[in-house]
Write the structure tokens for this entry.
Amino acid sequence: MDLFVLVSGLGTVIALSDLLPPWARVDGRWIAAATSVVGAVQLVFALGRREALHADLRRRFLALLADLDAENAKDTGRRMRALFGDEPPTFHAVDKLAYNAAMTALDRPTASMIVVTPSQRIWRNWRRYEGVQFPRVGDAQAAARVPAWWQRPKV
């Protein structure tokens, strides 16, 4: 069904592009190419499935927290560990950037943040960085490895 909607919508856009003024016309081949690229990205990276998985895990975790009380703490811990097993592998650079954002929001010192290099920022959603050590800014400063771009401006 999604394929039918996509193809019929593409045909409509191409047909209607002839009605546009000359300066706004787009060759139908460009529209078809853009649609193919977006479809390929969706197919390869399964963006919709990731979103659905995240929503399902969040719903299950909140239901687990709602059932938590003193009598069933051990059972809740067991169920929580099983829930963690259903999570997809972690993108560690994304995790570290989220940690840094939380530290900034809580007004923590820069030394407690984690160094994420520019290349790690670029590839954070495609590479998992398994086993890569992300030093804290304070540790890296002590080792004189923190680049100038990382220093937070003094206010």
Summary: The radius of gyration is 24 Å. The CA atoms of residues 55 and 65 lie 15 Å apart. Residues 47-66 form the longest helix (20 residues). The mean pLDDT is 81.
